[in-house]
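Forum: Protein Structure Q&A
Topic: Joint prediction for protein chains with partners

I've read a bunch of threads here and the consensus seems to be that you should model interacting components together rather than docking separate models afterwards. I'd like to see that in practice. Below is the full input, 387 residues plus whatever partners are listed. Could one of the regulars post the assembled result?
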Amino acid sequence: MPHLTIEYTSNIKAEARIPELLANANQILIAQNGLFPIGGIRSRAIELTDYCIADNQADYAFVHCNLKIGAGRTDADKKRVCDHLFEALKDHFAALFAKRYLALSLELNEFSESGTYKHNNIHARFKKP
Amino acid sequence: MPHLTIEYTSNIKAEARIPELLANANQILIAQNGLFPIGGIRSRAIELTDYCIADNQADYAFVHCNLKIGAGRTDADKKRVCDHLFEALKDHFAALFAKRYLALSLELNEFSESGTYKHNNIHARFKKP
Amino acid sequence: MPHLTIEYTSNIKAEARIPELLANANQILIAQNGLFPIGGIRSRAIELTDYCIADNQADYAFVHCNLKIGAGRTDADKKRVCDHLFEALKDHFAALFAKRYLALSLELNEFSESGTYKHNNIHARFKKP
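Posted by a regular:
Agreed with the consensus. Here's the joint model:
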């Protein structure tokens, strides 16, 4: 945790610069003063090849992000993280948004405390001595 | 919003007519007397190539739909929309259901009010003057 | 229901033995003394080709599982199922975990009672006469 999932329609694939988008998102999550353990940060993008948007009468596109984090952060922390991520998303797609139909969105969800299991040897790499 | 995600197993790909299924779903969501802004409707299908169903001893298939909408609609509105979508799903796959193992399902979820961000230039196309 | 979704990063694809992992998961879900109807068990794996983990500075990998079940099981039943699944996940990836960066995780979620629709002819196969 946290897990970020970014769905995007394949009609913007050539311009979406997905690796850069994911790397930037991770940097934002890392830069939250330790709010998220670095070794638990996982982002992925899913290319959507079968989709239908609105009335299906134009070449619409969308990017939808789902950030899922462990429960227990304050509302202020959650808002700050999402604000940063969404600003970065808008910046990343600003040129595209200016010239074509595009819907950007971000949702935040929390893992339930009880039903989560972890086994992770990446954390050790980031442990302070 | 709303977001519809349709997962289907690849063993029915040739007969699933996915573009038609997605377009029909959007038409149903549009036809709800303005319950959903047209410019926010987004459907997608995900083909599952790695799956295991039940005891794995026959050529089982499934189609699972997740409709996620903004919070605040009435229970009656939500039921009507889901009833329509599920009837359309059953109609769409009726011939297939009659001749092979197939599980159809639909779940409804709501976005949390607080944690959702949007930036969408498709809405403008559908604004009344 | 239940639905199991296993995401895994493509850098472990060659060693992940996904069909075996899914089949084992189904066997665990079937072996819960009738807690889950066999005909409703559906597992799938999603290969992630675009991902970014932690600081992106090593060849990190992850496997994330989401088990979603109908509401109404006891906490003890849910814990037992998840314990079994997660032990199986750790066993399955033990050799890989011992030699490379890898994060394994499992989350449990429940379907809302109200918003779920089903139409399934697989159940009939498992009906007791």
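The helical segments of chain A are 18-30, 75-92, 94-99.
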